[in-house]
Amino acid sequence: MGFVKKRGDNIDTKIISFLQEQKHPVSTLAVSNNLKLSWHTVINHCLRLQISGKVEGYKIGNLNVWSIKK
């Protein structure tokens, strides 16, 4: 029986790949628009990725912005 990748893992991979290509931190809305995912899905995955130490997130005004953890 082979390992089946969950859809959530696929979304995490897409978000990480997108953020690695960016030179500057990117807003949740920009990530969702570029990856054609809902804003709610992106914010949930980014928060989980932040907790696991894979991405950095912070607020600028009322925007959440994300970048790859250095």
Explain the overall architecture:
The protein is an alpha+beta fold. The protein has one domain (7-68): Arc Repressor Mutant, subunit A (Orthogonal Bundle). It is 51% helix and 20% strand. The chain has helices spanning 7-21, 28-35, 39-51, and strands at residues 26-27, 55-60, 63-68. A three-stranded antiparallel β-sheet has the order 1-3-2. A hairpin with a 2-residue loop joins β2 and β3 (63-68). α1 (7-21) crosses α3 and α2 packs across α3 (39-51). The longest helix is centred in the first third of the chain and has 15 residues, at 7-21. The chain is globular. The termini are far apart. The mean pLDDT is 92.
Q: What labels would you give this structure?
A:
alpha+beta, 51% helix, Arc Repressor Mutant, subunit A, 70 residues, three-stranded antiparallel β-sheet, 3 helices
The counted number of beta strands is: 3
Distance between the termini: 36 Å
Largest sheet, in brief, is:
3 strands, antiparallel
**The top level CATH class name:** Mainly Alpha
Helix percentage: 40-55%
